[in-house]
Design goal:
The protein has 203 residues and is of the alpha+beta class. Helices cover 38% and strands 35% of the residues.
């Protein structure tokens, strides 16, 4: 399992660093996430201050990049510095890396939360699915629809599915009207709420 996780992480890093949008989309779908975050960190030994003779000092730099898996769009880039001082070099280095990592994590969390909060979340419940290919055809149609920035599969089974839609400012009424206009797959909107839409696909 650890080897598989390491392979997936390497694929994510390679895709994000290369900007390979299609690969990013595939990986996001594979692991079921809307946002991929990658990063790196390094620590350098610093000249100790005479006041702290006998101690070892390190300065670390950590950076992270958040990418929307549905589009490959870079949402945020964060870089922070951290310091660590201990009697042993490895301990000082680890302390500096932890400090920089905590700062990066806190800033990234704030930025991502702000971005996601600014986008309306709509729940789309679907009935009448004939299989995963049918669902993927619908997700593809949704991906090209104005007002929908991303889709996330929340559940699937028994011919039914639930998707989370990042609406990007579009209302449920707007989305419902566009869904009614779908030709492949054709669909009928059963109900529309403030943040929910029920959709039935044509047999």
């Amino acid at each position: 399992r650890s080897a598989l996780a390491a392979a997936v992480m390497k694929n994510i890093l390679d895709a994000v660093e290369s900007g390979d949008t299609e690969k990013i989309k595939d990986l996001g779908k594979e692991i079921g996430v809307e946002v991929l975050v990658t990063g790196d960190a390094a620590a350098d030994k610093m000249e100790p201050h005479p006041k702290f003779r006998g101690f070892v000092s390190y300065r670390a730099r950590a950076s992270a990049k958040a990418v929307r898996s549905g589009t490959g769009q870079v949402l945020a880039v964060v870089t922070q510095m951290g310091s660590g001082m201990e009697i042993q070099g490895p301990v000082a280095s680890a302390k500096a890396l932890r400090a920089a990592g905590r700062l990066v994590g806190a800033e990234m969390k704030t930025k991502i939360a702000k971005i996601l909060k600014s986008r309306a979340a709509v729940t789309l419940r679907i009935r009448g699915l004939k299989g995963m290919e049918h669902l993927e055809a619908l997700r593809k149609a949704l991906g090209g629809m104005a007002g929908i920035e991303a889709t996330t599969l929340r559940s699937y089974g028994g011919g039914e599915a639930e998707l989370g839609l990042a609406a990007g400012g579009a209302s449920t009424q707007d989305i419902a009207a566009r869904l009614e206009g779908l030709k492949s797959p054709s669909a009928r909107v059963k109900s529309v709420g403030v943040s929910e839409i029920e959709l039935e696909l044509a047999p």
